[in-house]
Amino acid sequence: MASTNATTTALADRHEDVKYAFAFKNLDWEAYHRYRPVYPASMWRMWFDYHTTHGNGSFATAHDAGSGPGTAATIVGQKFDEVFVSDAGAANLATAEATLTPRDKFTFHHGPAEQTASWLPPASVDFTSICMAFHYMDSAATVRAVAMTLKPGATFAAATYGFRLLFPGQPRAEALWYQATSCESLRLMREGKLFPAAVKGLARAMTGLDFVAFPSDLFENVRRVYVNVKEGEDKALYFVDKDPLWDEAETFVAPTDTREYIQDPTWGRRADAAWLRGFLASSQMGFDETTWSLPEWQELEAIVGSGPDGTIAVEWPVSITLATRKTNA
């Protein structure tokens, strides 16, 4: 009990608010960017082409919600005249404010996405994006709050990538990655090293974005794109075995939603063993030397080390959702 209490206290000390799993008081965002995928040009083309061909197609005003250090807002700001940037974490937002330029293009707001309608005027935004953050939000509340701020014909775009890495042409490496991440994630849950909000977010993320519903009274042209996922593939983004320690997230894909399956190697890179460790550690779940000492992890690193320059090709399974704010809503 004492150990569990100490762990809980240590976790709380790292967070501004334990309700928001990625609202850390301090985070090395440089390391985060070093060990995370770059949102490829193919995603931005898809998003902006969709925005141009559906609805109003205006590039006047955008909102990047759950922005973190402004990773996606950097690209959004290259297309839109004015960009609102919001995040539940004050430290995250401070990093974005120190990073994004030109400064006069961006307006910053500290607050969760669920409260978007409390500070953005109704029907004032042409494009809202949420990248790798939706799983930490109350999706129903966020969708309705964002909808209130979107102009008729505006675009809602979201993306999340998996921690179940793909290793093209290396099925043994792929199996070892899954075995190690599942074993260690369950250990961390048993040891109380993950807040309930983090466990719930993990479960949602493993559905991609299928846990997000886009009500037909608010949105149309809902397009769900599964990247590096085969049609009919079950649980493509899962990296933890089903277990009583966590509850699977409910999914809300409507019959009218369009499903598309594409292969896109630009959602990938070559990685060495140190990068694989860094990527997994960047989840902030607590992976550490205990993880790297697993026999499965040691075998995986041996496979990686035998590759060209000690590297291996990796790809991400990705879930992308695009929706248009109804003009007659």
Q: Can you summarize this structure?
A:
The protein is of the alpha/beta class and 329 residues long. Helix content is 35%, strand content 20%. Strand 2 (82-87), helix 5 and strand 3 form a beta-alpha-beta unit.
In words, what does this structure look like?
There is one protein chain. With 329 residues, the protein is α/β, with parallel strands linked by helices. It has a domain at 2-162 and 208-267 and 317-325: Vaccinia Virus protein VP39 (Rossmann fold). It is built from 11 helices and 10 strands. It has helices at 2-14, 29-34, 41-53, 71-79, 90-99, 139-149, 171-190, 196-205, 273-281, 289-292, 295-305; strands at 61-65, 82-87, 106-110, 125-131, 150-161, 219-227, 258-262, 268-272, 311-315, 318-325. An 8-stranded mixed β-sheet has the order 3-2-1-4-5-10-6-7. Strands 8-9 form a two-stranded antiparallel sheet. Strand 1, helix 4 and strand 2 (82-87) form a beta-alpha-beta unit. Helix 7 runs antiparallel to helix 11 (295-305). The protein starts with a helix and ends with a strand. InterPro entries: Diverse_substrate_MTase, Methyltransf_11, SAM-dependent_MTases_sf. This is Methyltransferase type 11 domain-containing protein. Keywords: Methyltransferase, Transferase. Residues 64-157 form the Methyltransferase type domain.
